[in-house]
Design brief:
Distance between the termini: 35 Å
Number of helices: 6
Helix content: 10-25%
Structural class: alpha+beta
Oligomer: single chain
Radius of gyration: 21 Å
């Protein structure tokens, strides 16, 4: 269905149902600019304090459960700075203003009437049984990577949490492309030639080490959230493409501490989980200005001279960055599949950007299994190429397995660009072509 016909059909359906509700400027302002006239506070907290083993009990209420335990054990300390705004693209905000009033939830948890922007900019209501599902849709259709993002260089270091030994380093290139709901890069709002109705493509390729070179991962997520993702893995040493089964997205990816489903915080279908809104609170989160951090002295072998965020703490498993007190919405996601290895995910969703700032995964017994913080820098405080993009850039991440005493640290350079990311990059044919 072409773009004009789809939008016309959608508009007629929404008008016929009487479900068009204007979203006020006040709601838009509060959603995208919560810090204009308000600053998050906590009893006894002053920006600039270093939270460490000696004072952690005083700040327990503003730490996620895993971070509290790490600091209490003396594994790491956290430097803090004042809360700052991470404004998103004016195009994304305007798309929200134009279209959010027509969005509603279907009984099966999918969306109706969505075009672009933030699906539900209204403040979540604990009395609304669908509040959690609405928030996770805000994440799913968020502006985490803009319309198109390339990550390169991208280093994954496998580390022993007890000794700090780096056991293995994988070097990737990684690409993300929204086929629909685009607001910044042409074509907008979608690619016309998309017969499979793909919403988003994810493509990753291993550059080093030699034994994994040219191993590639391709994921297609569809407009229809009830349709299962398609995923393919090209094994460089075998020179063949194989389709991944549904269960394999919950397996360790290339021996790391991450599942494919973990990527970006949650890389799966909304309808695979039940989502509960567990309240809004102020938490210390790794939001910072990249250009103001103590960056790694290890060269990234990058033509721009870019330097990664550094690591510190026990095992080198923590980002050496400053944290801000941020307004966050807490979600509890529980997989519907009884064979899934997790019992739940607890996600702390940053209210301003709707990005996942930290995620805690629990095993089938209900014990904490993995901690996954995602460091965020604003695009104005990163590379020159990212200025003006209005994106809260992913800048560092850790998958820390507290049961195996092991972590995988992710250090990388994100660029919001469409120079490389075109639909043909996200095809099975490209896997075979790039692997030969």
């Amino acid at each position: 269905m072409n773009t004009v016909l789809r939008l016309l059909t959608l508009s007629l359906a929404v008008l016929a149902s009487g479900m068009v509700y204007a979203v006020s400027d006040e709601v838009i302002q509060n959603s995208f600019n919560p810090y204009t006239s308000w600053t998050p506070t906590a009893e006894g907290y002053e920006p600039g304090v270093v939270v460490n083993q000696s004072n952690v009990e005083q700040y327990k209420a503003i730490l996620d459960d895993a971070m509290y335990k790490f600091i209490k054990n003396g594994d790491v300390e956290v430097k803090t700075t004042p809360t700052t705004s991470f404004p998103l693209s004016d195009d994304y905000v305007e798309a929200t203003r134009q279209h959010a009033g027509s969005v509603s939830l279907n009984p099966n948890g999918t969306l109706s009437g969505y075009v672009a922007g933030r699906a539900f900019p209204q403040e979540p209501d604990k009395n609304d049984p669908d509040a959690g599902t609405k928030l996770i849709w805000n994440y799913q259709y968020g502006f985490n990577s803009g319309d198109s993002e390339t990550i390169h260089p991208f280093w994954w270091n496998y580390r022993d949490f007890n000794t700090g030994k780096v056991e293995r380093t994988l070097k990737f290139e990684w690409h993300f492309l929204n086929f629909n709901h685009r607001v910044s890069f042409d074509p907008k709002p979608e690619y016309a030639d998309n017969p499979a109705e793909i919403y988003r493509g994810i493509y990753g390729r291993v550059l080093e080490p030699f034994d994994l070179k040219d191993t590639q991962l391709l994921i297609h997520r569809y407009q229809d959230d009830t349709k299962r993702d398609d995923a393919w893995l090209y094994l460089g040493f075998q020179r063949r493409v194989r389709r991944l089964s549904t269960g394999q997205v919950a397996d360790a990816f290339l021996g790391s501490d991450a599942m494919i489903e973990d990527f970006e915080g949650y890389n799966g279908r909304i309808t695979d989980y039940t989502w509960e809104y567990a309240g809004t609170r102020n938490l210390l989160m790794p939001f910072y200005n990249h250009n103001e951090q103590e960056l790694s002295s290890e060269p990234a072998n990058d033509a721009d001279g870019f330097r990664f965020v550094d690591v510190h703490g026990k095992g080198g498993c923590f980002p050496k960055v400053t944290y801000q007190l941020r307004k966050t919405h807490t979600l509890i996601g529980k997989p519907k599949d009884p064979s899934h290895p997790l019992s739940k995910r607890i996600i702390n969703l940053d209210s301003e950007t709707m990005t996942m700032a930290s995620l805690l995964s629990y095993d089938k017994k209900g014990d904490l299994w993995k901690w996954f913080p995602i460091g965020k820098t604003h695009s104005e405080n990163h590379l020159e190429a990212n200025k003006g993009r209005g994106v809260a850039l992913d800048d560092f991440a850790v998958f820390l397995d507290v049961q195996a005493n092991h972590c995988t640290t992710l250090q990388f350079k994100s660029i919001v660009t469409d120079d490389v990311n075109q639909p043909n990059l996200f095809s099975v044919q490209n896997l075979r072509k790039s692997g030969n």
